[in-house]
Predict the structure.
Amino acid sequence: MSNTAASRQLKTLLLEAKSVLFTGPIGPDGDSFGACLALAKATAQFSTATLHVGGEANFRYDWMPGAETLLKDLDLADSYDLVVVMDGDRHRLTPVVSALFQAAKATALVDHHGSSSPDGYDVVMLDATSPSTCEMVYTLIDGWGIALDKAMATHLYTGIIFDTGGFKHENTQAATHRLAARLIELGVEPSPIHAKVLHERTAGGLRLLGEVLGAASFYGEGAVAVGVVTEEAVSRLGVVSGDKEGIIDALLNTAGVELAVLVSEKGNAVRMSLRSKTRVNVAALAKSLHPGGGGHVRASGCRVSSSLSTVMETLPGVLVAALA
Ligand SMILES: [Mn+2]
């Protein structure tokens, strides 16, 4: 199905539904929140349906227009006619949202993750060449002839700068800058958004950044950098959700590093964020570490059900081998 046909079909589904849930994967980021909030606001222009956006915003996103309308899992309705999954696929939903997805009359996917499967939806918009889901949402809204307001422009700008690292990652295109310019003309104030979404952290988060960078390990003649966040450090420093954002970029920005991994301990499991500069496909690497892993070619993640010490026994060798 072409994305133009999918755009028409998605509008039809939105028009037919009496209740819609817009939702991202578990632990939504700026692109996911931005895409959901903007599409929900645009849909309100032609729909009288109950429109809910799922998710829980931390300090990076709680200032966004409409953030106060975000619903936690426990506050969601018992059922929805339509569930639209955005910026991540149906295999990464929370258990509550996954059940709502299964029971919905219709479902749709709007996503730019190359690792997402298009199977299992009534309508699919999947474009792995798009820098962000928010850029896809802009195309959708524009194609439907709906005028963006300052709030929607702010939602989209947030997602764009999150996924391009503030126009720095190699996914950034000329069209990304053109769209950003248009959003700024609609009233977006870039500076405070960049500060909140990309740079600010709590004092505890600052201390964590220092500890993780100070203890970073290098392998493969300095081409692999690994940082570790222990549960002990998180609790001792009072780190909050959103504070770990950006640590991985500091690791990757070390001269000579091609591949960086941030390993975070969580109970009896370990969460890994992977980034590469120019040649390692970290979406494939994340999937090789765990079948549920994936993401983008230069940015991905996975969760492994092993202790931190077990993971660290084998991880460096796997990462060095991935450079070959
Ligand atoms: Mn995204």
